[in-house]
Structures are given as C-alpha cells and as structure tokens.
Amino acid sequence: MITRRFGRTEIDMPVLTCGGMRYQKAWSNDAEIDAEAQENLETTVRRGLEMGARHIETARGYGTSEMQLGRFLPSIPRDQFILQTKISPKYNKIEFLSEFDKSMRLLGMDYVDLLGIHGLNNEETWKMTVERGSLEAAQELKKQGRVRHIGFSTHGPTELIARACATGEFDYVNLHWYYIFQNNAPALIEAARQDMGVLIISPNDKGGKLYEPTEKLVDLCAPLSPMRFNALFCLARPGVHTLSIGVAKPSDWDEHLGTLERVDHAQTLTEPIVQRLDQAMADAVGAEWVRHWSEDLPLWQETPGEINLHTIIWLWNLAKAFDMTEYGAMRYNLLGNGGHWFAGQNAAKLAEGQVTEEEILRALNGYRFADRVIPILREAHDLMAGEEKKRLSQSES
Ligand SMILES: NC(=O)c1ccc[n+]([C@@H]2O[C@H](COP(=O)([O-])OP(=O)(O)OC[C@H]3O[C@@H](n4cnc5c(N)ncnc54)[C@H](OP(=O)(O)O)[C@@H]3O)[C@@H](O)[C@H]2O)c1
After folding, report:
1. Cα distance between residue 136 and residue 396, in whole Å
2. CA–CA separation, 87 vs 152, rounded Å?
3. Which residues, judged by CB distance below 6 Å to any ligand atom, belong to the binding site of ligand 1?
C-alpha cells in the first residue's frame, strides 16, 4: 500500500481509506445483525487491512456500522489500524460528549485516532461547532487522550470550508473534490497552508456514479476505467492524501488494486485524459461558457423558489458533455430533500409554474448568460426529474 503523510497529524496514511457507510447492515441503530451481514462486513474490512487500507472511517450517524465494527476490531492489535469516527455538531457540549461515549462503547475502543465533526455544512452547523461547544468538547477529549486528532467533514460551500481550515483548529478535513467537481480547490489550498490532512469523500459515487459509467465516459477515460482515472486524478494532487472508498463487499476492493499500481505515474497517466474530457465539455457546451458560467450566478438563497442554479447547471453540463443523466437524476432529485447536506431546490417549481421565468430573469440581473438559463433549467428538468431521492441515512425512515 502507498502511504502519504496526513498533514500535521504525522499519520502515515494509506492512499485508500476503508469507508464505513456501505457495508453496515442498516442505517437504523436498532436493527438485528444476522451472521451473514456481520461476516460480509468483517471480510470486507479484513480484505482492506490485508491490502494495507488500514484507515477505517465510520460515523455515529452510519447506523449499525460502529456496532458491527466493534464486534471484531477489539480482537485486532490496536496499532494495526487507524480509526476515525464522526459526530455531528450539537447545540451543547454535553450532548456531543455523550454521543462520543456512545461511539466508544459501540466500537469497543477507548480512543480514536481521528474524530471528525460530521457535516460542517452551513452557518448553523458552524455556530454549533465553534460557538456552541462541539469543537471545545472534541478538544477536551483530545486533552484526555481519547481523541488523537480533530477534523471535520463537509458538504458545505467552499468559502465556509476555507474559513474553517483557516481557524487552525482542525488537523484534517474530509471534503468533496474530484474531476467532475473541482470547486473546492481554494479550500485545498488553505488546508495545505494549515498543513492539514485531506481525505476525499465518495470519489466513486458522488464523484460521478463511476461504477456504472456512461459509454462516453468509458471511451474518454480509456485505457483507464473512469473509477481508476478519477482516483489517480485526485492522487495526482500532492495536497490530497487519501480517498475514502465505499466498499460494500470484499470484491469491491479489486478495482482499486489497479489504482495502487499506477499512483506513482498519476500525473502522466491522467493528463491526456483530462485534456480529452475538458475538450469534450467545451465541444458540448462552449469554451466561453465552461470558463465563466458560474461567475455572478445568484446562489440558491438569492433565487426565487431557492432553486439551486449552480448545482442544476453543473449537472446539465455533465449530462451534455458525458451523457451523465443517471448521475444527474441521482443528484437532481435529492435537491429539496438533502437539507444542509445538499442545499436548495431543483427546477420543479419553474416547471410547475410556482416560480415564473420573469422572477428568475430578475434574479439573474446582470448575469452575462441570462438568456441561456431558462432553457437549461427546463431541459435539465425534462432530462433528470423523477422520483424524489432521500439521503441514504433517511432511506430507511
Ligand atoms: N459527509 C461525510 O462525511 C461523508 C459523506 C459521504 C461519504 N462519506 C464517507 O466516504 C466513504 C466513501 O463514500 P461512498 O460510500 O459514497 O463511496 P464510493 O466509493 O464513492 O461509492 C461507493 C458506492 O459505489 C459502488 N461501487 C461499485 N463498485 C465499487 C467498487 N469497486 N468500489 C467502490 N464502490 C463501488 C458501491 O455500490 P454497491 O453498494 O452497489 O456495491 C457503493 O455504493 C463513505 O463510506 C463514508 O465513510 C462521508
């Protein structure tokens, strides 16, 4: 396994992390764990350990994941794995500390190497973290030796992520950054400035449903598979230290072995593919548009019906350039149900006439491509609208 220094934690971090939210039996905490489900989880994690993917990243919010890990991790010598769990921000310290205690009981551990504030995604979770005691609680746990390093995971806006990194309070960050979504690059720069560890969240699923790639993506990424191209694209950036892989079964690791063999040549292998993908995007929607479409575009909070123009246009670009309508639908239909994890609404309100074209055009005041927005919103809705999607953690409720 190839490892990288995980920033100021000085942890020798494997470039592939064993994600903890796909092999658990259930998202609800009280589910019965049958032997087969437990067996699948243990063999999947053990396969990772054998490969050297010894960083296990779970969360209190991942249902039975902690409990099931706690059924066998205590039997493995503690120095053979790096354990991360995550607790979502709370309105008071006591609540945060009791959630942490619960995690330690379920994991059968007396300390974790990494504790992440799970979901620093907007101003409210920011306040809960830095003003209402969640960070203070984590720092107390660090003083007690029950937590070795503190970080945060985020689906928030780039400005918020960079602001959190710039506080200097966090040793690492889990964030989204991969080929189809590079907006968080300024946050990566701030994280590097703070010598923080960087983990990439969901490179294969949120990174483009790359396990079911479109034919166009397969052709453009050849000779690499889209999953391997994307992994190498991420690891070609020095400030990226590990990718969290959502393995659901032991065989899911196979594809990623191929990535490991090529990490040392990540830059040269991915460069020509990046050029092809960028060219395909420019050919599909126009080079000028690609360079400038997101400038001066109102945020969802500033748009009638809270329609998230940035996300919808980003998905429309991917559909036009790479035929990624299935991925688009997965994300488009989560808008409106994602809370602060995936904020804003899709264009249903325009399609249903609750919001008028005039209202949106007024909000676009001064936006250079105003004439293209309404047709794009309507086409995006036609292409991607479907059954409402829920967040995985809500999927069983
Ligand atoms: N906010 C946060 O902190 C946050 C948010 C999201 C994720 N995460 C962390 O990031 C980890 C990775 O995200 P993710 O679970 O979305 O992982 P991912 O690796 O991006 O995607 C995993 C999904 O891809 C599918 N898949 C198919 N073949 C695969 C293969 N060879 N390898 C991997 N996946 C394959 C799996 O589907 P099948 O189930 O059909 O096999 C699985 O559902 C999570 O486990 C979690 O620990 C954190």
Report:
1. 33
2. 9
3. 19-22, 57, 86, 118-119, 153, 155, 174, 201-207, 211, 244-248, 252, 255
Q: Are strands 112-118 and 82-87 parallel, antiparallel or unpaired?
A: parallel
Q: Where are the domains of the chain?
A: 3-266, 286-395
Which ligand 1 atom is nearest residue 247's CA?
33
Distance 246 CA to ligand 1 centre (A): 3
Closest CA to 16 of 29, 26, 2, 34: 2
Q: How far apart are CA 182 and CA 322, in angstroms?
A: 16
Instruction: Tell which one of 202, 234, 256, 342 to mutate to probe ligand 1, the residue whose CB is within 8 A of the most ligand atoms.
Output: 202
User: How far is the centre of ligand 1, averaged over its atoms, from the C-alpha of 251 (Å)?
Assistant: 14
Q: In a structure prediction context, what are the per-residue pLDDT tens digits for the chain, which is 397 residues long? A: 999 999 999 999 999 999 999 999 999 988 999 999 999 999 999 999 999 999 999 999 999 999 999 999 999 999 999 999 999 999 999 999 999 999 999 999 999 999 999 999 999 999 999 998 999 999 999 999 999 999 999 999 999 999 999 999 999 999 999 999 999 999 999 999 999 999 999 999 999 999 999 999 999 999 999 999 999 999 999 999 999 999 999 999 999 999 999 999 999 999 999 999 999 999 999 999 999 999 999 999 999 999 999 999 999 999 999 999 999 999 999 999 999 999 999 999 999 999 999 999 999 989 999 999 999 999 999 999 998 877 777 665 4
Residue 19 alpha carbon to ligand 1 centre in Å: 7
Mutate which of 233, 245, 259 for ligand 1? The one with the most ligand atoms within 8 Å of its CB, which is 245
The CATH number, out of the four listed (3.40.50.1820, 3.10.20.30, 3.20.20.100, 3.30.1300.10), of the domain defined by the range 3-266: 3.20.20.100
Using CA atoms of 40, 148, 126, 199 in order, give the dihedral in degrees to the nearest 10: -50
Closest CA to 17 of 190, 238, 251, 240: 240
